[in-house]
Amino acid sequence: MIIKAKGLTLNIEPDEYPPNPREQGSLDTMLCWHRQYDLGDKNPYAALEDFDADKELQDSIFAQQSVYMLDHSGLAFSASPAQFRAIDPQGYDWGTVGVIYITKDNAIKIYGDLSEQSKQKAEQGLVDEIEEYDRFHNTQYYSYSVEDGEGSNLIIAAVITVAI
């Protein structure tokens, strides 16, 4: 898409190689288990049961959210199974693929305390992270450049995401 206004040209195009949001630095952790795909963050646990059995980690978790994935002509991620259930009620192509969590120590770094209000913010933040991961997997990243009237680039290859 090209937009021209006031002597400037804005070029917007899909970013074919967007940065993986899980590699951009985050204080939460997304662990996934799938036999075909390498998803989420580096995962030290062989199975969800091993994650659940780590008592020390479980005691340190402030907020946690399940990660659901639909694998049908591409991957889609969600914090809720509702949208996938509407598409595939039998659950042949979707299910829980992992968890995302934030520890108490990291929650204090972000929210300043462990209050109920901070927990609600943390839970929403985890949902937002899953939505961002979904946008990454569904090419909803775009790059743009702005050129002046002489064709000189003023801004090059900045990344934006679009929530559809």
Describe the model:
The structure is a single chain. The chain folds into 2 domains: 1-18 and 141-164, no CATH class; 19-138, no CATH class. The strands form 2 sheets. The chain has a 4-stranded antiparallel β-sheet with strand order 1-2-7-8. It has a 4-stranded antiparallel β-sheet with strand order 3-6-4-5. The protein has helices spanning 48-53, 55-60, 82-87, 104-111, 116-137; strands at 2-5, 8-14, 28-32, 61-71, 75-78, 94-103, 141-147, 153-161. The two termini are 17 Å apart. The protein is an alpha+beta fold and 164 residues long. Strand 7 and strand 8 (153-161) form a beta hairpin. It has 5 helices and 8 strands; from the N terminus they run E-E-E-H-H-E-E-H-E-H-H-E-E.
Overall mean confidence score, pLDDT: 88
The low-confidence parts are none
The gross shape turns out to be globular
Number of strands: 8
What's the structural domain tally? 2
Helix content: 25-40%
Task: Give helix and strand order, one letter per element, not per position.
Answer: EEEHHEEHEHHEE
- Kindly provide the radius of gyration, computed on alpha-carbon positions and rounded to a whole number of angstroms: 19 Å
Strand content: 25-35%
Structural class of the secondary structure composition? Answer: alpha+beta
Largest sheet: 4 strands, antiparallel
Tally of separate helices: 5
Placed side by side, the strands forming the largest sheet appear as 1-2-7-8
Cα end-to-end separation: 17 Å
Features:
5 helices; single chain; alpha+beta; 4-stranded antiparallel sheet; 164 residues
